[in-house]
Design goal:
The structure is a single chain. It is built from 10 helices and 9 strands. By secondary structure, it is of the alpha/beta class. The chain has a 6-stranded parallel sheet, with helices on both faces. Strands 6-7-8 form a 3-stranded parallel sheet. Helix 2 packs across helix 3 (55-62) and helix 2 (31-40) runs parallel beside helix 10.
């Protein structure tokens, strides 16, 4: 899968809903009910970050939930890409991009949302063949104002900003023409996870799915 083909797949993914939940899970038992709540709430694309020992098992469990599209976040190495693919991930997300990571995603046919925060990083991704990327870390990199400014000289790239995106600022991002969707963790708050309050999480997902883009 070439970077151009990966970007085409990422474009479809990012158009599924205005928010991609960014999930950090410590309990495998939470995987299926959480995925079911988010998908039923209208958020089918789910990013499980590889930051916990059970992350790959969580991806395996979530991959069984009908209607969901599960991806692996925090991909850093070829080994990460291979493990994510074998666990059932259908897309990958990374904080940045290296030639080795790009080659691995091409090798294992895993669409990549590669992270970029500067004009140089965006230009490098465009040069590699990507036209969809993750803007990360969004808020500490200047937020929606920075992304709007980058869109003027680099309109070819479209983004999923992640990192500090919240209900208080999400509308600022989604109104930008170069933003396809956002990544956010607020739809799966830790207290609700700990309590198994899947109804509350589904309600938060419905609110996020109803957000207006453009």
């Amino acid at each position: 899968m070439t970077p151009a083909e990966q970007s085409a797949a990422s474009l479809v993914l990012c158009q599924l809903a205005p928010v991609i939940p960014v999930l950090v899970l410590d309990e495998i038992a939470h995987a299926k009910p959480l995925a079911q709540a988010l998908v039923q709430g209208g958020l089918p694309a789910l990013e499980v970050t590889l930051r916990t020992p059970v992350a790959l098992d969580v991806i395996r469990a979530m991959a069984e939930v009908p209607g969901g599209r599960v991806g692996a976040g925090t991909l850093l190495t070829r080994a990460d890409v291979r493990a994510a693919k074998e666990a059932g991930a259908t897309f990958g997300v990374s904080p940045g991009a290296t030639p080795a990571l790009i080659d691995a995603c091409s090798e294992f046919d895993l669409p990549l949302l590669a992270g970029a925060a500067t004009a140089t990083e965006i230009m490098a991704l465009l040069e590699a063949g990507y036209t969809v990327a993750k803007f990360f870390p969004a808020e500490t990199s200047g937020g929606a104002a920075a992304l709007k400014a980058l869109g003027a000289p680099l309109p070819q790239m479209r983004f999923c900003p992640t990192g500090g995106v919240s209900p208080g600022n999400v509308a600022d991002y989604l109104k930008l023409p170069n933003v396809l969707c956002v990544g956010g963790s607020w739809v799966a708050p830790k207290p609700a996870l700990a309590a198994g309050d899947w109804g509350h999480i589904e309600a938060l997902a419905r609110e996020a799915a109803a957000l207006t883009r453009g």
